[in-house]
Amino acid sequence: MGDIWVSAGDVEKYGYCPLSWWLSYSEEDPDDPRLEEGITKHKEISKGVSEVKGKQEKAREVENIVLWLALSATIVSIAGLTLLRPERLFRQILQVTAMIWLLSATFLLLISEMSSFKKYVSNIEKVILIFAIVASLLILYSFTLGLFDPTTGQVMQVLSLSWLIGASYWVKVSLSIKKETREKKNELSLGEGEIKYVDELGKEIELLVSEKYGLRGRPDYIKKIDGELIPVEVKTGRIPKGPFFSHVLQSAAYCLLVEDVKDKKPPYGIVKYGETEYKVDYEDELKELLLEKIEEMRSATKTGDVHRNHNRKGKCLNCSRRSICPEKIA
């Protein structure tokens, strides 16, 4: 790796023009109003995406509340019924129900060990835990029948009804939050997936750092789609017919960071221009090209021998380093 670190943003600049990238370190770097405009737009985008992320997290919390309220109400209701009529039949019903829940937990445990379901393992394990707890409570309770009087059963029925009313309220809250989230996602054209990470300017946000490759950076945000972590980079300005080469390199850099830091290789990255999204397939060829460019950057940093790599006048006219560039096209 060497002792020279490279950022994903620098990779994008180098892909655009090596000389422009080199001049970005100059003390004479101009105060280009376009740069300030880009920062302002980035802040607006990150604020909106952060709002969506917060709503998604709130919706998950509410769903957990609903789950536990409904589950508790079910258990207490069954227990209350058996207290009102504690015959042997109800005891047997409880034991059979517990056996069904235990068999279900065993089946889910088997599924969690199957490689094709690995991306669902975390959620499956939570369900297994719930099933096992319920089964244990049912079995325990079936052996304690007769220790309580019918009045206790009536109290438990009222309690379970109260919990179900509470669960109904939180279901309404959850639906409301999901509706707001959906509307905000449509407004920002965020597409499918759950927001897992947002780069908020001016805030202490996790910097993705790869010691292995000497690379670091912060994608605009990371989405979780079908169990995969997908880095997304948002670009302002005109919408091209396809992603620019420099943006493809930057997307690859974020994919490399996610692969190394999160230990989960993304199948692709996304470059977003307005409402238009382009998938950048993170294949071995692109990864090799990225690593070659990073090594070129390190070599250029040591030698200082950096030059313009194109003959496009339009590119020079739109370059923020044009005023100090010794090789600009007139």
How would you portray this structure in words?
- Strand 5 and strand 6 (228-235) form a beta hairpin.
- The radius of gyration is 28 Å and the shape is elongated.
- The strands form two sheets. The protein has a five-stranded mixed β-sheet, with helices on both faces. A three-stranded mixed β-sheet has the order 1-4-3.
- It has two domains: 6-30 and 192-324, Lambda Exonuclease, Chain A, CATH 3.90.320; 55-188.
- The protein has nine helices and eight strands.
- 27% of the residues are buried.
- The chain has helices at 8-16, 18-23, 33-84, 88-112, 121-142, 150-188, 245-261, 284-303, 313-317; strands at 6-7, 194-198, 208-210, 215-217, 221-225, 228-235, 268-273, 276-281.
- By secondary structure, it is α/β, with parallel strands linked by helices.
- Residues 115-121 have low confidence and may be disordered.
Topology:
Layout: E1 6-7, H1 8-16, H2 18-23, H3 33-84, H4 88-112, H5 121-142, H6 150-188, E2 194-198, E3 208-210, E4 215-217, E5 221-225, E6 228-235, H7 245-261, E7 268-273, E8 276-281, H8 284-303, H9 313-317
Parallel strand pairs: 1-4, 6-7
Antiparallel strand pairs: 2-5, 3-4, 5-6, 7-8
Helix pairs in contact: 1-7, 3-6, 4-5, 7-8
